[in-house]
Specification:
With about 270 residues, the chain is an alpha/beta fold. It contains nine helices and twelve strands. Strand 1, helix 1 and strand 2 form a beta-alpha-beta unit. It is globular, with a radius of gyration of 19 Å.
Length: about 270
């Protein structure tokens, strides 16, 4: 008997999740289905009731519902309470349990490529939605320190205080103050939306060491200007799609309690570009 899964948000038609999960079902011969389901901003409560009625087995949550969804789950795992947002829900006979796969999704490419975060100095650009999960992941992996650079200093300060609270040494600056200090870091992450519309990199990579890890969480376009410039300086690159794939794999494993078919999911995701 096939189960139904979904991704909810608004807008939803650009979501690649249906491709990725459907490919996994095909690969493993599962009779399940995965749909995109648009729920406008102020209709979350009704939307959730509707999903319960059709006995949805699980769903992903995207913009704008990730924080508000916290109100509608019956249980949460620790990643959720730490990050303060839900992006994956499992429905167990009407009991909704919330998870946040952002942190594991972010860390997955490091594990796949055998790259270490421990004792590294990190520069994080951006302090928005995904940044808090990234900080949590970096703290978990015992980085040496993090510098948070953002356009609005207030948001960077808040995130820096969160980092300190979870035992990660941190400081914050405005994004235009980075100038040519990128060379002082081992890992540089773009968690801003700069790059989505092909804007040029917010920082320069002058003088960075070869093998500095440069990670852009923007996944469309795949080759952002930020990553192109990092490549010119012989950096190790992590693409935004790798985080997206990491999140999908974690969600798959939460719902199905079995290993996700990584290659089939990767192929479907890259085919979606």
């Amino acid at each position: 008997m096939g189960k139904t899964f979904a991704v909810i948000g608004d807008p939803i038609d650009h979501s690649l999740s249906p491709h990725i999960h459907s490919a996994a079902f095909r690969e493993l011969g599962l009779e399940h289905s995965y749909i995109g389901y648009r729920i406008p901003k102020d209709e979350l409560a009704e939307g959730i009731e509707g999903l319960k009625k059709i006995q949805i087995s699980g769903f992903n949550i995207t913009i704008p519902h990730k924080i508000e969804m916290m109100k509608y789950v019956d249980k949460i795992d620790e990643s959720c309470s730490l990050i303060g947002a839900v992006n994956t829900v499992a429905n167990n006979n009407g009991v909704l349990k919330g998870y946040n796969t952002d942190m594991d999704g972010f860390l997955e490419p490091f594990k796949k490529k055998n790259l270490k975060i421990e004792n590294c100095r990190i520069l994080l650009l951006g302090a928005g939605g995904a940044a808090r999960a990234i900080v949590a992941g970096i703290a978990k992996e015992k980085a040496k320190s993090i510098t948070i650079a953002n356009r609005t200093l207030e948001k960077a300060k808040e995130l820096s205080e969160f980092a300190t609270k979870i035992q990660l040494e941190s400081n914050f600056i405005q994004i235009n103050e980075v100038k040519n200090s990128a060379k002082n870091y081992d890992i540089i992450i773009n968690a801003t939306s700069i790059g989505l519309k092909n804007e040029s990199s917010p920082i320069t990579f002058e003088g960075i060491r070869e093998n500095t890890i440069v990670y852009d969480i923007v996944y469309k376009p795949m080759n952002t200007d930020f990553l192109k410039k990092a490549k010119e300086h012989k950096a190790i690159i992590i693409y935004g799609y790798e985080m997206l794939l990491g999140q999908a794999i974690r969600a798959f494993e939460i719902w199905h309690d079995m290993k996700a078919p990584y290659n089939a999911m990767k192929k479907a995701l890259l085919g979606g570009f």
